[in-house]
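Supplementary Text 2. Reproducibility record for the structural model of the 682-residue chain.

All settings were left at their defaults, and a single model was retained for analysis rather than an ensemble. We include the record here because the model underlies the residue-level annotations in Supplementary Table 4.
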Amino acid sequence: MIFRECAEVARPPIKIQIYSTDIDEDAIAVSRGGIFPANIAIDVSQERLRRFFIKEETGYRIKKEIREMVVFAVQDVIKDPPFTRLDLLSCRNLMIYFEPELQNHLIPIFHYALNPDGILFLSPSESIGRFTNLFTPIDRKWKFFSTRQSLSLPQTAGTLGLPLTATLTGHGTTEPAIKPPETNFVELTRGILLQSYAPPSVITNEEGNTLYVHGDTGNYLRPAPGQVSLNIVDMAREGLQLELRKAIHNAVQQKTHKSIRGVPVKTNGGMHLVDVTVRPIADPRTAKDLLIVLFSIIRDITRRKQTEEVINRLSDERKTLIDNVPAMIWYKDTRNNIIRVNPAGAHTIGLPVEAIEGKSASDLFPDDADNYYQDDLEVIRSGVPKFGIIEQMRTASGRTLWVRTEKIPLTDERGTVTGILVFSVDITDIKLADDELINRSEQIRATNIELTASGQELRKKERELLDALAEKEVLLSEIHHRVKNNLTAFISLLSLDASCEDTEGGRALRKDLQNRARSMALIHETLYRTGKFSNVDMEIYLTTLIGQIASSYEGSTAIRTNVNAQGVVLDLARATTAGLIINELVTNSFTYAFPPGFDCLAARGETCTIRVSFARVDGTYVLTVADNGLGLPAEIDPLATKSLGLKLVNFLASHQLRAEIEVWSEKGTEFIFRLNNINDNK
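Retained model, structure tokens:
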């Protein structure tokens, strides 16, 4: 039951065959019945009782699915040949009843019966004795052992002391075993050579009953289900029985050897092509006629056979449809061999069907087979179809085709991928037309890109021209307006100048007029120097303006000027107004703030300085003009004075800049103008 549960969850699913033997024929008969007493419910879970047993009046009967897993046979483990190619051999609480000599006889037989890496399971009170060269302990407590490869004499039925004439009687007994001769080095060498190079073979009598087995015959023979039989035909694997029976019959009748070639034989989960030779021989001791049957595997055709089975399951209607489809259809196994091709596929390649089927893709397409097989492997490993593969195919004549290919996995009843179905359509004409269309499209696209770039460049030039015209219009308008205002100012100022004598006051007035005119001229010079006709960079403008004012006063080198208007850009109108205000206040500072005898270091603790700053504070432009000189006389109110210069400052600030004015006269004089509604003209 545990084996069945484990086999069901294994991936891929595995098939389990169990052989159960006993020397007592009555015990075997009871076991075959599969009847258990009711008290097994104490040790067996309710789930397993429901799944694996049928409740009857006297107890429980094992279900068919478990019963069919077990073959029961009468066997004397001492005298009868063992079952071979076993993965697990359980012999518990038997050898404790045998003498050491008999135990030493059984352990090598167990090793012979097991596959490489097979498991031997003994009871806690039993051991492998001195045969540590045959087994490796896995669990010493529970007595699990794994087989080891041995360098001793190869183990065959004869070398293990098994009977050469082992014929079962009705009670499961056999004739006495023939004791093997003493082993010498010649025999040891001969045995090793036979085991290594001689093919698996069986010696039988003329009725086919097995007398001696050499080598591993598991790919060709297996114990027959039901009552144990040593007849080689009964033990022959599926696909081999009929041909072997014929070969034995003909060899006996004609007294000559008979060979059968390429017989498909079903082995453990696979399919192989097998060659068999039956040769008559004579026993020199008894003069009896015997037969030796030799086996050899030609090729593993497991995947091919599975693929053929999938193909054969197709209905006749589907096969007819496939043969008449104009597209190419291939059936391939998992090793890149072509099992079948439809007429359209053969015609496209340019070879007859029989020249293609059975060949590998490497034979037909030596240059491209690896590329084709990469997609095949992806489908085989994943079990998922692959569609829309666009690839090239070369025909037998050397012509290159473009094909669209779909690859679909073929599976057996267990879901194992055994091959693939390849469906290909010749799209050469479509591909060439598509490539031409792509080339034309690329050319059109390149032309469109060039035209688009040219159009963008033209639009850019157009915008630049319009912007330049707009700036010039603004400039011309502003120049016209400012020139008109400046001329009005000059007329008024010159009229005042005409009434002045050539006195100290007159000279001062003329210098004042010159500075004001220079301030307005400097605006236009800054515009042309920066190349910006609408906006004035105040840092450049004020630095130049203050420098020109300072150069017009003697002794100005002793007075330090500091200008900071970085990042401030004003439109032409407000820049001109601000320049006139700054010109007026800086001129006053040079003229009145630092009279002879005033010591800035003594009075202010620093060099005489005139500072002009223009900055943006909390969204408002703030203009500051300050000096650390003597300061305004106490009797002068700068916001209400009758002085022409300060009147001009107040008028320009209030009416043109719409600025709020603050005046401080503590440590010198400081004018602060906060400009309202000034847009950022950067």
